[in-house]
Specification:
The structure is a single chain. The strands form two sheets. A six-stranded mixed β-barrel has the order 4-5-10-7-9-8. Strands 3-11 form a two-stranded antiparallel sheet. It is built from 13 helices and 13 strands. Helix 2 runs antiparallel to helix 9. It is elongated, with a radius of gyration of 35 Å. The protein has 426 residues and is an alpha+beta fold. The longest helix has 44 residues.
């Protein structure tokens, strides 16, 4: 049995490392660099993926948005470049002809509404919505309440503001029950919501109130709904049916994709995930390739170590050392160097990723899992390949070269004496 805690053996290892500083540094650097690159690549790729995917968290993944467009083809007597507007009557048709749609929600909006509270001013997106809009955008009400059915029926001048609007206008003051002015018209703040990304800089008002406030009549800015589709293929079929229905309503070619713009979140999410799966695979290949290059370098260095210590090994055999003790010495040195260097690469890689996460909230929980996994795997591969493989190769050479087998007789020299003799040959 190989003893890992052997004072004499570890003294020999440290002495050898001190006498061969350049070799030790190069060996450690190759391992540390491979692990550092692997952690940084995996962490960066995973962090970038999470940052991009967070943009889709603003809406349900089975959501659809329909926006007005311009025709690009002549159709049924109508000239191309015709403006296609959306109307409230479109919702009734979609409810009847598109069974996969639910939570149909029209929106009336302006992107740069002048809003103020006292002496605090700002330009924010003001949107007239229905109560079920919260199911589509998946907002979280943090204070007060959301738009409700009574607000719609009574044309109430109430508003639900994003948390950034709350922060900029009220500066820590409780906004519930206070009045803000939207284009110089007072609205009572009844709630605050939290959303991702730029969604926190929006203000929601009742849809019926927005019709009057924006004088939009029957026009709507866009129509949103949730679909029953669960796969990308089902989502594409819902999109095809939706475009056909809208083309029938507004008299444009069903193959004219510019007639109305359809935002299919399921398709976008699926395509983005496939893209980043490919990126992740590419990153793994680069990281593992870098790690293998380091392992090959360490293996070659350890083979040189074995050749340089041939005389010492002969003395050990003459003194009765068993093959296991010699093999254990070589492996212990490799394990010690690669473990210390591996942890140095790990610490540096984690430090770089922590610096990235402190600069971007989207990365805050993105790379820690892959750091731990990448470190464990790379450390195991490095230690095994750098220490065990060269030693096995050396044992094979000894067995094939016809060198004398080590004596099985017990050695008359204690460990300390053997250590002194070995030092005399180094």
């Amino acid at each position: 049995m190989i003893k890992l805690i052997d004072i004499d053996k570890w003294q020999e290892i440290l002495l050898t490392m001190r006498k061969n500083k350049l070799r030790t540094v190069l060996t450690a650097f190759s391992v540390a660099w491979g692990i550092f690159i692997l952690i940084v690549l995996l962490g960066s790729g995973n962090g970038l993926k999470n940052a991009i995917m967070q943009n889709f968290a603003n809406n349900a993944q089975n959501a659809f948005d329909v926006y007005p467009g311009w025709t690009s083809k002549d159709y049924d007597g109508f000239k191309k470049y015709r403006r296609i507007n959306l109307y409230t009557s479109d919702l009734n048709v979609l409810q009847k002809k598109l069974p996969a749609a639910s939570n149909l929600s029209p929106t009336i909006s302006t992107w740069n509404g002048n809003v103020n509270y006292g002496n605090a001013y700002g330009n924010y997106s003001v949107r007239g919505i229905m109560p079920n809009h919260i199911n589509i955008e998946q907002s979280t009400v943090t204070k007060g309440r959301y738009i409700n059915d009574v607000d719609i029926r009574m044309w109430r001048k109430v508003a639900v503001i994003g948390k950034e609007v709350d922060k900029n206008l009220f500066k820590g003051e409780n906004p519930i029950g206070k009045y803000i002015k939207i284009e110089n018209t007072p609205f009572l703040v009844v709630g605050v919501f939290s959303d991702v990304n730029w969604g926190n800089q929006k203000i929601f008002i009742p849809y019926s109130t927005a019709q009057i406030f924006f004088n939009s009549g029957k026009n709507v800015s866009d129509i949103s709904f949730l679909s029953s589709a669960t796969t990308k293929e089902e989502g594409l079929e819902v999109e095809r049916q939706l475009r056909t229905i809208m083309a029938d309503i507004h008299h444009f070619d069903p193959e004219d994709e510019s007639g109305v713009y359809i935002n299919n979140y399921m398709e976008r999410v699926s395509d983005t995930q496939m893209l980043f799966n490919g990126v992740q695979l590419f990153i793994w290949l680069i990281g593992i390739g870098t790690l293998i290059a380091g392992i090959v370098g360490v293996s070659n260095i350890m083979m040189i170590v074995v050749k340089e210590r041939t005389r010492e090994i002969g003395v050990r055999k003459a003194l009765g050392a068993k093959p296991a003790s010699v093999v254990g010495l070589i492996i212990s040195e490799a394990v010690f160097i690669t473990t210390v260097a591996g942890y140095m690469g790990m610490v540096l890689g984690v430090a770089v990723m922590e610096a990235a996460s402190s600069s971007s909230a989207s990365w805050s929980n993105s790379e820690r899992g892959c750091q731990g996994l990448g470190t464990i795997w790379s450390m195991g591969i490095s230690v095994t390949a750098a220490g065990l493989f060269p030693t096995i190769r050396w044992i094979s050479r000894v067995s094939l070269s016809g060198t004398a087998s080590p004596s099985r007789a017990p050695s008359p020299f204690p460990n300390a004496a053997r250590f002194a003799i070995v030092r005399s040959f180094e």
